[in-house]
Backbone:
C-alpha cells in the first residue's frame, strides 16, 4: 500500500520491487533496483526516509523516519526480517541481520554488520566495517560493543545518551517513577493526528 502522508507521497524508482502488502507512507524515496519485502513498513512519520539503490529490505522490517532524525540508507544495504530502524543513518554496504535494531540518532558506518538481534543504541556511532555480534549492543560515540550480560556498563553509557529527553522531550524520572503516564497519552494522540489524513497515493 502506497500512502500519501502530510501532503507527501513516496517517490519510488520504476525499477524497484514493492511487495503487494508492504506499506510505504509519506516522504519516502526508494532508489533503483531496491526490493521491499512482504509486510515491510516504511513510514516517514514525522521525518523523511531515503533508501538508496540495490537495497534489500526484507519481509516484516520496520523503518520509521521521525522529526529531527530522518532515515538515510545508502546503496547495497541489506535490512533483515524483523529489523527495526528509527531515525538513523545506515552507510552503504551495511548488513543488518534478522531482528537488528538501530535507534534514533544512531549512525552505522559503511560496510558495518549488525548481526542477529544486535542493537545500535540511541545516538551511538558504529564505525565503518565494525561488527555487532549476535545479541550484542553497540552504545556510545564512538560505540563500545558489549555483550548483553554487561548491563551495568551498557547502562553507564546509555543513561548519558538520555533516551527520555532525546526521544520524548521529558526529563528522566526519579527512581521508581515512570514517564509513561505523561508521555503515552500525548504520543498516541500525536500519532492519530499525524495519520488521520493518510490516503492512498495517486499515481
Residues:
Amino acid at each position: 500500500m502506497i500512502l500519501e502522508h502530510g501532503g507527501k507521497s513516496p517517490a519510488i524508482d520504476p525499477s524497484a520491487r514493492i511487495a503487494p502488502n508492504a506499506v510505504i507512507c509519506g516522504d519516502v524515496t526508494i532508489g533503483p533496483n531496491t526490493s521491499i519485502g512482504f509486510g515491510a513498513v516504511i513510514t516517514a512519520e514525522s521525518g523523511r526516509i531515503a533508501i538508496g539503490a540495490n537495497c534489500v529490505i526484507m519481509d516484516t522490517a520496520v523503518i520509521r523516519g521521525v522529526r529531527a532524525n530522518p532515515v538515510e540508507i545508502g546503496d547495497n544495504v541489506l535490512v533483515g526480517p524483523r529489523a527495526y530502524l528509527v531515525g538513523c543513518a545506515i552507510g552503504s554496504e551495511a548488513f543488518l541481520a534478522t531482528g537488528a535494531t538501530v535507534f534514533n540518532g544512531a549512525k552505522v558506518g559503511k560496510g558495518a554488520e549488525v548481526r542477529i538481534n544486535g542493537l545500535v543504541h540511541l545516538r551511538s556511532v558504529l564505525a565503518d566495517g565494525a561488527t555487532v555480534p549476535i545479541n550484542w549492543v553497540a552504545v556510545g560515540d564512538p560505540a563500545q560493543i558489549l555483550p548483553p550480560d554487561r548491563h551495568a556498563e551498557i547502562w553507564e553509557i546509555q543513561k548519558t545518551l538520555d533516551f527520555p529527553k532525546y526521544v520524548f522531550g521529558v526529563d528522566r524520572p526519579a527512581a521508581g517513577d515512570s514517564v509513561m503516564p505523561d508521555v503515552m497519552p500525548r504520543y498516541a494522540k500525536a500519532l492519530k493526528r499525524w495519520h488521520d489524513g493518510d490516503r492512498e497515493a495517486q499515481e
